[in-house]
Amino acid sequence: MIYADNAATTRISELAVQKLLPYLMEEYGNASSQHKLGFKARKAIACARKQVAKAIDCEPHEIIFTSGGSEGNTWVLHGKSRELCERERAHLITTSIEHHSVLNACKNTDVLDVTYLNPDSDGRVSVSNVESALRPNTKLVTIMFANNEIGTIQPVQQIGEMLKSHNVMFHTDAVQAVGHIPISMKKLKVDFLTASAHKFNGPKGIGFIFIRDGIAMPNYIFGGEQEFGLRSGTENVAGIVALGYALEECVQNLGEDTITQQLLVKMTIEKLKKSIPNLIINAELANRLPGILNITFENATGEAMMHLLSLKDICVSAGAACNSNKGVPSHVLLAIGKTESEAKNSIRISYGRYNTVKEVDEITSAIKSAYFKITQAKST
Fold first, then answer.
1. N or C: where does the chain have the smaller number of CB atoms within 10 Å of the terminal CB?
2. Mean pLDDT throughout 330-339?
3. Active site residue: 58, 106, 315, 322, which one?
């Protein structure tokens, strides 16, 4: 099998598995217990918190472990927004290409007026767009660090600096970015950042939220006062440990992985453009994540292409994994100006650490075969 759907999830690294297993088998203590096993679990969590803090250049106490990106996004947009709206109905700014955990959280809040900014044709939102949308009662802005479907990286640092001058809080969904591009929270003027381990070769069901020092957050889960009293519940010690090592490993290999994934994307584009007519690379000119490639075909649906590739044991996607089984066109592609037909005629290839040049040859050959099989069937 060739796996090229790393934006949906990544294969857990061997190091992460190696570090995870002892906390399921031998060191299985509850981190709140006051005996030796409990102490070892607490120490392991503290070590992982330091690893994450070092990886994104912040302080350990600014990291809270969660179940993943969706939880962190919901916590900020529902929990913090209600606190911000205690005196007046507040205004929030986001974009129309956010992950559905953000869009649905915005849709289902009854305390916020929400402005949805549309990006340009490359999926980018400018600082001036955000500033123009500010109102006197704007309390929070949430803009993803990098898009999960087309890979576009937003000018998060510049947006944060502008919002700081207006005294507006800033949250970024960095699920696709953490572990894949350099991030320094000491440089970014971001108040909240969310991440998920399974996007950077860690296990599923564990993530973290960065909450800048000095910012109060409402309790999200009540119980035994774990995670500095903000998120109660017995900690997923094994998952936390694996997350720490997975992220540390990704950051250490960042330069090499970036070069390799950029090469794989470049080769894929070159090979497909030579063999398939009227091919469109979405957000081709944008500053993108190194491994994500979104392609629109003429007269061939992404769903059909994906299934034909799957029959050859090649895994790609026809959109975001959380929405790919609903048969609706990508809201991201529609937002950057694609027609409904174009949005449905698209696939996403997302390379990761374990992909190779040889696999590019097999993927591009299979895509070419699938495309002509579909288009020839339509013409007969």
1. C
2. 96
3. 322
302-311 vs 357-379: helix crossing angle, rounded to 10: 120
Catalytic, 315? Answer no
In sequence order, what DSSP letters do the residues of 159-225 get, joined into one string? Answer: HHHHHHHTT-EEEEE-TTTTTTS---TTTS--SEEEEEGGGTTS-TT-EEEEE-TT-----SB-SS-
Q: Would the pLDDT of 85 be above 90?
A: no
Tens digits of residue pLDDT in 217-271: 988 888 888 999 999 999 999 999 999 999 999 999 999 999 999 999 999 999 9
CATH no. for residue 298? 3.90.1150.10
Same domain, 90 and 213: yes
Asked whether residue 167 falls in the same domain as residue 128, the answer is yes
Report pLDDT for 131.
98
Do 281 and 352 lie in a common domain? Answer: yes
pTM of the model: 0.95
Q: What are phi and psi of 348, to 5 degrees?
A: -115, 125
Q: Which residues have a Cβ under 8 Å from the Cβ of 64 and sit 6 or more positions away? A: 208, 209, 211, 227, 228, 230, 231
CATH of the domain at 246: 3.40.640.10
Same domain, 226 and 261: no
Higher pLDDT, 182 or 85: 182
298, 299, 302, 304 alpha-carbon torsion, rounded to 10° = -150
Range of the domain at 335: 2-10+254-379
The Cα–Cα gap between 376 and 257 comes to 38
190 and 79 housed in the same domain:
yes
237 and 218 in a common domain:
yes
pLDDT in tens, 156-183: 999 999 999 999 999 999 999 999 999 9
Alpha carbon separation from 315 to 309, 312, 356, 357 (Å, rounded): 7, 9, 14, 16
